Amino acid sequence: MDLQRILFWVFSLAMLASGALVITRRRAVDSAVFLIQLFLCTAGLFLLLEAFFIAVVQVLVYAGAVMVLFLFVIMLLEPDPTSETNFPRRAVFGSATLAATLGLAFILLLRKPALPDVPADALQGGLRDVLKPLFTHNLLPFELTALIILAAMIGVVLLSKQDSNEP
Question: Where is the domain boundary, 79, 110, 136?
Answer without folding.
Answer: 79
